[in-house]
Amino acid sequence: MDTKTTSIVAYLTWIGTVIAFVAGDKEGAKFHLNQALVVIIAQIVCSFVMVIPVIGWIVGIIGSIFVFVCWIIGLIAAINQEEKEVPLLGKIKILK
Predict the structure, then answer these.
(1) Percent of the chain with pLDDT over 70
(2) DSSP state of 12
């Protein structure tokens, strides 16, 4: 896969992230692989927070909406081949 395809596939669920990491152009799409991984981890955290009654539900729902917006921003940046960080989460670097 070329860099653009790898970047886009990285945002398509966690399976897409794994496929992009294994079969794609890792060096060219490392930025978007990292951003997609951070967004997926943030969504998992929001899911765990929702276990807490009432307060967790509110925080989890607001967090999930925020993560969805971050996902859209990252996907659009990948489609346009831009290295635009997602809000608040974009500074986190997992892949070096």
Answers:
(1) 100
(2) S
Task: Give the whole-angstrom CA distance, residue 32 versus residue 49.
Answer: 26
**How many angstroms separate the Cα of 93 from the Cα of each of 15, 17, 26, 39, 50?**
20, 15, 15, 12, 25
Query: pTM (2 decimals)?
Result: 0.87
First-to-last CA distance in the chain?
20
C-alpha closest to that of 74 among 44, 47, 43: 43
- The backbone region for 53, taken as left when phi is positive above 0, alpha when psi lies in -120 to 50, beta otherwise, is beta
Q: Residue 90: left if φ>0, alpha if ψ -120 to 50, beta else—which one?
A: alpha
Angle made by CA atoms 21, 31, 16, in degrees to the nearest 5: 35
